[in-house]
Amino acid sequence: MGRRSSKIAGRKGAQDAKKAKLYSRIGKEVVSAVKRGGPNVTSNSVLAAVLEKAKELDVPKDIVERNMKRASEKGQEAYIEKVYEVYGYGGVSMVVEVSTDKIHRSVAKIREVIKDYGGKMADSGSVTFKFKRVRVVNIKATNADKDQLLAIALDAGAEDVIDPPTYEDDTEEDRYYKIVGSSENYSSILSKLREEGIDFEPDNGSELLPNTPVEVDDEAMDLNKELMSKLLELDDVDAVYTDQK
């Protein structure tokens, strides 16, 4: 397999993994909502909100239905959401979002990965203040130019359009713009993109963006990427955010 073929396969694998994480996260939210308030959408406002989010994010109906059924199975517990804060290489910070029905299993596996790949657990509150929570739409750089996205963002009331980071080994296919919005204008942003025929990848409900990105050397960058990748391989981990530039 040639270099270009390898990169295409790698991108597809990364996109599939990201989609799988989204479906897993929504599935967990469905289970927890049903466990706490029952399967009736009319009387369970939390479940209604989760189902609406699933629809907005194009989560397949069978994923939702499977987890509705799973919630009623004997022994299935509601999921607990946890946040772990981590120091990486070169002064970089990370936030690891977890939802798990087995908290002791979850923290043990996370600690093991962080230790094995050179990170360090941080005290609660020592990292999260470096980030802000927003709604984000990711658009491949080959699918639209920045002026077009700025016009859409302005029309929809979005906060910003962030340029793709540039890494040495990346091609245009690897680079994504981010339109930054809020819960109030997110649906409007998606509608405008659909009207313009621009393909996009929604977030998984929200994302954390760094207040001040940290620039590191190539070695630290690669080591941080590896640490994040290994954390994301864990089933209980829904997302990993970093302030690495």
Short description:
The protein is α+β, with helices and mostly antiparallel strands. Helices cover 44% and strands 20% of the residues. It has helices at residues 3-37, 45-56, 61-71, 103-116, 146-156, 186-195, 218-232; strands spanning 80-87, 93-100, 120-121, 131-140, 160-162, 176-181, 201-202, 207-210, 237-242.
Task: Draw up the topology in text.
Blueprint: H1 3-37, H2 45-56, H3 61-71, E1 80-87, E2 93-100, H4 103-116, E3 120-121, E4 131-140, H5 146-156, E5 160-162, E6 176-181, H6 186-195, E7 201-202, E8 207-210, H7 218-232, E9 237-242
Give a verbal description of the structure:
By secondary structure, this protein is an alpha+beta fold. It is built from seven helices and nine strands; from the N terminus they run αααββαββαββαββαβ. Helix 1 runs antiparallel to helix 2 (45-56) and helix 5 packs across helix 6 (186-195). The longest helix is centred in the first third of the chain and has 35 residues, at 3-37. It is globular, with a radius of gyration of 19 Å. The model is unreliable at 1-12 (pLDDT under 50).
Strand-pairing-aware structural class: alpha+beta
The largest β sheet comes out as: 5 strands, antiparallel
Rg value: 19 Å
Strand content: 15-25%
Mean pLDDT: 88
SSE arrangement, N to C? HHHEEHEEHEEHEEHE
Number of strands: 9
Question: What is the CA–CA distance across the termini?
Answer: 31 Å
Discrete helix count? 7
Label this structure with key terms.
four-stranded antiparallel β-sheet; 7 helices; five-stranded antiparallel β-sheet; alpha+beta; disordered N terminus; 245 residues; 9 strands; globular
